[in-house]
Amino acid sequence: MIVLGIDPGYATVGFGAVAYEKGKFTPLEYGAVKTDPGLSFQARLFEIHRDILSLIDHIKPDAVAVEELFFNTNVKTAIEVGHARGVIVLAITEKGIPFFEYTPLEVKQAVVGYGRAEKRQVMEMTKVLLKLSKMPKPDDAADALAIAICHAHTASSQLHTQKGEAGCFIT
What we know:
Layout: E1 2-7, E2 12-21, E3 24-34, H1 41-59, E4 63-67, H2 75-95, E5 99-102, H3 104-112, H4 119-129, H5 139-162
Parallel strand pairs: 1-4, 4-5
Antiparallel strand pairs: 1-2, 2-3
Helix pairs in contact: 1-2, 3-5, 4-5
């Protein structure tokens, strides 16, 4: 299974793709889609949409996982990131790829085993699980890889609970 994780933003959108087979992760690609701050907000949203469509075409994921938004202070930033997240979800939907969303707490729980883990712990565990020699940069890419890992663990767990006694999937 190939999972594309996305950490939404409007200045920087982190992405990370992993292959997950038989309980093992293989990092495929990670990085960030960045928009020019000199562009209008609408142009930045258009760039994000276009770049996510291209990324999906390039990676060909079986599923895309996006982090749910969590803001407790800056409402303006929350609204702008919400708009960016909307065009990201639109791009995923246009490509017909299964879409999943996870809260930061769920990502931390899946990657570290503790929902209140510190960001540094999540990044370090992501590095370990993917057998990377160094921490993925930018941080948004590391977050996106963690989101992809979260989905792979969650999807794998759901498949196990859906199996019947004879090993067939229950439909």
